[in-house]
């Protein structure tokens, strides 16, 4: 019965494989059951259908135990379609010369005499040594897939790296589930939420995977390792945490070595400080054959914020956290969730199985080299018989053979780190002739001067001067502005452009036309909306950048506005100076918005500058026009204040654009009103000092 086809396509599959395969290999189930009360077994499978199909082409005949890949998402039918034979466990062991299993099936060892078992052993650890002894007693040739040397040609066989990558990714997913909040910073109508803070300890494959996934989710990541891998950390967008202690942490085989006691004391102080600030901690530090180093003490856990999460990927080796319970997840008394699952890769069984299976295929192909399946065993045993001249990979992974233990060769020494070479940026550049540079600069300046002179032909010198100086001042003011402050800068600039109110006030005072006066009133009204609303929106934007608990004393900058008011009312001969200083303050406001440290003060500079110009203009109005202007400014200012305070934070940039359209309306109304009042010559030139504020 065992040889009878179990599935409809089984006969076809055997025909595809061929009557005389080069090598019979078997894939065993890991014994996982969803109905089991305990967590025995593993959801992964050591061979997936896609990889099996490629091995069949190389002459391998593959026997799959029934249901081996079910919990990893691979059905028996999929294996049959790939050219495999699905049968029961006993038949798989009996017919196969080479057997695959993630966890060494100790209970089946008596049935495997004379077979080759490729499994996850961990020969350097106590448990692995016991497995090797048991396999040796049963005359099994045991291959430890975790013993692959850390050399370039063996990278494609490295199951530790492939499974660690899955574990690092899954660690962030588990932490996210337990954390229960946003990773990326959010600014919504329902409030502002800062990004999460993540601390990754141990920057191997798992640590780098954790950094990548965490950064992709929007978290702010910090990282540490006993080795100086700051370049890798920075390249992934994370910040490097430095322990104030010098020690070389590189060990044999590319792993980290155990740290000294003095270094441990220094790192504990650093870790406690960082952990008190972050939301999520991922630990990955492990030393082959030794207990996992203790990185997070109970005191450090007690200092963490309630709701924080620790994921200990080194729990199987005792854990990097003092409070880790291997295989469990629980919450401490101070609200910190500690996750110590031992089966992170198995929690992504489909992905981890696919990667492990590809490692196994690479292992088979590495050993049989240019040959096919029939060359696997001869090449494997040949490498062992050749001693030091044999393949280093084969000699490293075989633990025992024919009842004899096989000594593992010493791990290769890591390549010494090359010192960083500082490249001279000027190296290779041909020096420019000073004479040629001087002549080129002189010619460019000459052309520029000619363009400006002829551009100003027929234009009043005062207007040209104002235009050129304003352009130069504006260029210097906004040069070097921080990217995050672009929108607040535009908002303050827009509020200052509400100076179109000055043109409306002058037109209201000097026009005898009803139509022109109406247009002047519109200009004053909408300009007031823009000024008050614009500054309110600008301040709200800047408040979004303020740190929690910080106090803003910039409102004291508004006091000079009282000086402008007093001088405008009592010293009319100084109105020209008031308008000039007001214009200067507006330019300073734009310049101050280039940096976060001076942005709040810059916003106040703009308010004072606009207030000074408006005060100097309004003192020259008649009593009737002053009352009309006061009403219009109050109505417009009140409307702008209401809109600026009520608009949603996420709609602040759009509000700035809407306010700016009012500036265009005010300018258009003033221009049309000026033409209506003076259809031939336009608005008469103002001789009062306030006229300069319009130019400003």
Automatic annotation (TrEMBL):
Organism the protein comes from: Polarella glacialis
Membrane topology classification: Multi-pass membrane protein
Residue span, Alanine dehydrogenase/pyridine nucleotide transhydrogenase NAD(H)-binding domain: 176-340
Transmembrane regions listed in the UniProt entry: 437-456, 462-482, 489-508, 514-538, 550-568, 574-593, 605-622, 628-645, 657-677
Compartments where located: Cell inner membrane
Sequence ranges assigned to domain Alanine dehydrogenase/pyridine nucleotide transhydrogenase N-terminal in this UniProt record: 36-167
EC assignment: 7.1.1.1
Keyword Transmembrane belongs to the record: yes
InterPro entries: AlaDH/PNT_N, AlaDH/PNT_NAD(H)-bd, NAD(P)-bd_dom_sf, NADP_transhyd_a, NADP_transhyd_a_C, PNTB-like
SMART domains in the cross-refs: AlaDh_PNT_C, AlaDh_PNT_N
GO molecular function annotations of the record: NADP binding; proton-translocating NAD(P)+ transhydrogenase activity
Enzyme class: translocase
Protein's name according to its UniProt entry: proton-translocating NAD(P)(+) transhydrogenase
One GO biological process term: NADPH regeneration
Reactions the enzyme catalyzes: NAD(+) + NADPH + H(+)(in) = NADH + NADP(+) + H(+)(out)
This protein's UniProt keywords: Cell inner membrane, Cell membrane, Membrane, NAD, NADP, Nucleotide-binding, Translocase, Transmembrane, Transmembrane helix
GO cellular component, one term: plasma membrane
């Amino acid at each position: 019965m065992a040889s009878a086809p179990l599935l409809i396509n089984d006969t076809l599959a055997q025909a595809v494989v061929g009557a005389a395969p080069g090598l019979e290999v078997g894939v065993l189930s890991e014994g996982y059951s969803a109905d089991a009360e305990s967590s025995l077994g593993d959801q992964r499978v050591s061979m997936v259908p896609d990889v099996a199909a490629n091995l069949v082409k190389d002459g391998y005949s593959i026997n799959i135990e029934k249901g081996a890949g079910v919990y990893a998402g691979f059905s028996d039918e999929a294996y049959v379609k790939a050219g495999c034979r699905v049968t029961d466990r006993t038949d798989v062991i009996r017919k196969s010369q080479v057997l695959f299993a993630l966890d060494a099936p100790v209970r089946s060892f008596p049935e495997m005499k004379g077979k080759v078992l490729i499994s996850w052993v961990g020969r350097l650890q106590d448990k692995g040594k016991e497995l090797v002894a048991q396999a040796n007693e049963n005359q099994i040739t045991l291959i430890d897939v975790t013993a692959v040397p850390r050399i370039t040609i063996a990278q494609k066989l490295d199951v530790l790296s492939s499974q660690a990558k899955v574990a690092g990714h899954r660690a962030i997913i588990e932490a996210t589930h337990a954390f229960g909040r946003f990773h990326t910073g959010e600014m919504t109508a329902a409030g502002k939420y800062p990004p999460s803070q993540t601390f990754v300890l141990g920057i191997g494959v798992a640590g780098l995977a954790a950094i990548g996934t965490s950064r992709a989710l929007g978290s702010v990541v910090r990282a540490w390792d006993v080795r100086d891998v700051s370049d890798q950390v920075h390249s992934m967008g994370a910040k490097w945490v430095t322990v104030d202690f010098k020690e070389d942490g590189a060990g044999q085989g590319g792993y980290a070595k155990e740290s000294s006691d003095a270094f441990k004391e220094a790192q504990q102080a650093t870790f406690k400080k960082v952990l008190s600030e972050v939301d999520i901690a991922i630990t990955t530090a492990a030393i082959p054959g030794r207990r996992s180093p203790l990185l997070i003490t109970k005191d450090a856990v007690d200092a963490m914020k309630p709701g924080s999460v620790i994921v200990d990927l080194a729990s199987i080796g005792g854990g990097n956290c003092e409070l880790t319970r291997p295989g469990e997840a629980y919450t401490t008394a101070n609200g910190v969730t500690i996750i110590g699952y031992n089966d992170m890769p198995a929690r992504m069984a489909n992905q981890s199985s696919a990667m492990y299976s590809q490692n196994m295929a690479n292992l088979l192909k590495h050993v049989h080299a240019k040959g096919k399946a029939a060359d696997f065993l001869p090449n494997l045993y040949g490498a062992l018989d050749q001693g030091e001249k044999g393949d280093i990979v084969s000699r490293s992974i075989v633990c025992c053979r024919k009842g004899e233990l096989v000594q593992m060769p010493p791990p290769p020494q890591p390549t010494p780190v090359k010192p960083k070479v500082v490249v001279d940026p000027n190296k290779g550049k041909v020096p420019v002739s000073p004479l040629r540079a001087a002549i080129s600069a002189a010619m460019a300046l000459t052309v520029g001067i000619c363009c400006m002179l002829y551009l100003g032909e027929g234009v009043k010198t005062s207007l040209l001067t104002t235009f050129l100086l304003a352009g130069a001042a504006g260029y210097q003011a906004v040069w070097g502005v921080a990217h995050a402050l672009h929108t607040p800068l535009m908002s303050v600039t827009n509020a200052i452009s509400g100076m179109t109110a000055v043109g409306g006030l002058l037109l209201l005072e000097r026009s005898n036309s009803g139509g022109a006066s109406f247009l002047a009133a519109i200009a004053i009204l909408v300009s007031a909306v823009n000024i008050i609303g614009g500054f309110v929106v600008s301040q709200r934007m800047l408040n979004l950048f303020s740190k929690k608990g910080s106090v803003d004393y910039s409102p004291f900058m508004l006091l000079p506005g009282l000086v402008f008011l007093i001088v405008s009312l009592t010293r009319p001969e100084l109105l020209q100076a008031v308008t000039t200083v007001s214009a200067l303050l507006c330019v300073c406001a734009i310049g101050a918005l280039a940096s976060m440290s001076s942005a709040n003060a810059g916003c106040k500079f703009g308010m004072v500058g606009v207030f000074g110009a408006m005060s100097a203009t309004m003192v020259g109005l008649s009593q009737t026009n002053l009352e009309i202007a006061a009403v219009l400014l109050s109505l417009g200012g009140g409307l702008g204040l209401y809109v600026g305070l009520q608009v949603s934070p996420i709609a602040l940039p759009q509000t700035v654009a809407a306010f700016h359209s009012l500036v265009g309306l005010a300018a258009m109304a003033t221009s049309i009103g000026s033409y209506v009042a003076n259809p031939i010559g336009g608005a008469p030139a103002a001789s009062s000092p306030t006229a300069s504020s319009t130019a400003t």
